[in-house]
């Protein structure tokens, strides 16, 4: 029995030594960027572009339906936009709420909340003009729905027709 263990131990030792002494795999190193060549952006993160026209919203199945309120602050020195998650039949199925404000001055702001509950809010800065608000929710099913995409003018502002 002892004679069988010695060759097995020697074989295991040889396998371990061969694995530990092998050199690193030949991996080509990236060429250094020349000063005149700008660094390339990764292909996996394209820049988002936003249209000036609100797009269509999606119909959420009744069992996943949720309600969201959008409120504008009426003080012109602080024209914030607050989005409040009100809940609904899909309350326990909502894994994320994304809010984007595309302001009339061209600035785009986005915030998200994971696992929103009733009363969860997101407040973003608006303008005293006509700001576009989009709200998307992601459900446990993996489906993402844009439930709001429209303009919210500042109260009392003159909005061209």
So how many helices?
A: 1
Strand residue percentage: 25-35%
Q: What's the helix-strand series?
A: HEEEEEEE
Biggest sheet character: 4 strands, antiparallel
Q: Order of strands in the sheet with the most strands?
A: 4-3-6-7
Low-confidence segments, ≥5 residues, pLDDT <50?
A: 21-47
Q: Gap between N and C termini, in Å?
A: 95 Å
Assembly context of the chains: single chain
Helix content: 10-25%
Overall shape: it is elongated
Number of strands: 7
> If you average the pLDDT, what whole number results?
79
Helix/sheet category: mainly beta
As a whole number of angstroms, the C-alpha radius of gyration is 28 Å
How would you describe this structure to a colleague?
The structure is a single chain. With 161 residues, the protein is mainly beta. It is 12% helix and 34% strand. The chain has one helix and seven strands; from the N terminus they run αβββββββ. The protein has one helix spanning 2-21, and strands spanning 67-72, 80-87, 94-102, 108-114, 121-125, 130-139, 144-153. The strands form two sheets. Strands 4-3-6-7 form a four-stranded antiparallel β-sheet, with no helix packed on it. It has a three-stranded antiparallel β-sheet with strand order 1-2-5, with no helix packed on it. Strand 1 (67-72) and strand 2 form a beta hairpin. The N and C termini lie far apart (95 Å). The relative contact order is 0.17. Mean pLDDT is 79; it is low at 21-47.
